[in-house]
Amino acid sequence: LDDAFEKYYAAPPSPPPSSSPKQPSPSPPPAFTIFHGYEFNGVPGAFGMMLGLPVGVYALSWAAGRPSLRDALLSLRPALQKGMADGVLPAAAKGLVVVSGWIGIQALLDRFLPGPQVHGTPLPTSQGPTQRLTYTMNGHRAFWVSLLLAGIVHTRQRAGGGLSLIYDYFSRLKHGGILFATLLSVWLYRRSFEKTVPPKLI
User: Fold this and answer.
1) Is residue 96 within 8 Å of residue 180, measured between CB atoms?
2) What pLDDT score was predicted for residue 145?
3) Which residues have CB under 8 Å from 199's CB, separation 6+?
4) How far apart are CA 59 and CA 186, in angstroms?
5) How would you class 27 by CB atoms within 10 Å of its CB: exposed for 0-12, middle for 13-18, buried for 19 or more?
6) Do 136 and 117 contact (CB within 8 A), yes or no?
7) Buried b (16+ CB within 10 A) or exposed e, 74-85
8) Which whole-number Å values give the CA distances from 30 to 23, 126, 127, 128, 167, in the listed order?
9) 77 falls in which pLDDT band (50, 70, 90)?
């Protein structure tokens, strides 16, 4: 009896019986992502946005300086004819050079400034393991380098120059920025139909 008593209290206590059934363990996440379809209503929607956004930006820029919507609509056609005659396209070409140079500087900063490497969201694939692109998180450093470069350019110019020229050439920069965005959208739209294995940053 003493031996049985010692064995009973020396053994670890058994867990109490559970009244609820044992819940199954959650299944691990799938190793691939199912492609759920295109956004923006597919190819036609993306094409419409690509060409419609520049027109919308120009329309808002034009209408903002009109006293009423009626006046904006009535004066739109003469303004378009006069704008083409006054050389909007040459002005846009000059602004495009400046905007392209600025974007080129940002691209160089993105490629060469250090920063932690992070993985993006899973890419939509129909089969196989999930693939992710790797990004360098150096946007904060690029901001300060850009601010430093702008300050150097501004302080080394004579009075009336430097960054104040942005105001004087705002129209050219506006046209150049819209033209650059449109050309980049067309190029990216075309590249979206090309398949690269493995996926890579453009």
Assistant:
1) yes
2) 95
3) 123, 131, 133
4) 20
5) exposed
6) yes
7) eeeeeeeeeeee
8) 20, 12, 11, 10, 54
9) confident
Number of residues written out for the chain: 202
Joined together, the tokens standing for residue 104 give: 């080129």
Token pair for 98: 């400046």
Residue 95: partners with Cβ closer than 8 Å, 6 or more residues away: 169, 171, 172, 173, 174, 175, 176, 177, 179
* Predicted pLDDT of residue 31: 46
Q: What is the pLDDT of residues 113-166, one digit of tens each?
A: 999 999 887 776 655 556 788 889 999 999 999 999 988 888 887 776 778 888
- The three-state DSSP-derived secondary structure of the chain is CHHHHHHHHHCCCCCCCCCCCCCCCCCCCCCCCCCCCCCCCHHHHHHHHHHHHHHHHHHHHHHCCCCCHHHHHHCHHHHHHHHHHCCHHHHHHHHHHHHHHHHHHHHHHHHHCCCCEEECCCCCCCCCCCCCCEEECCHHHHHHHHHHHHHHHHHCCCCCCHHHHHHHCHHHHHHHHHHHHHHHHHHHHHHCCCCCCCCCCC
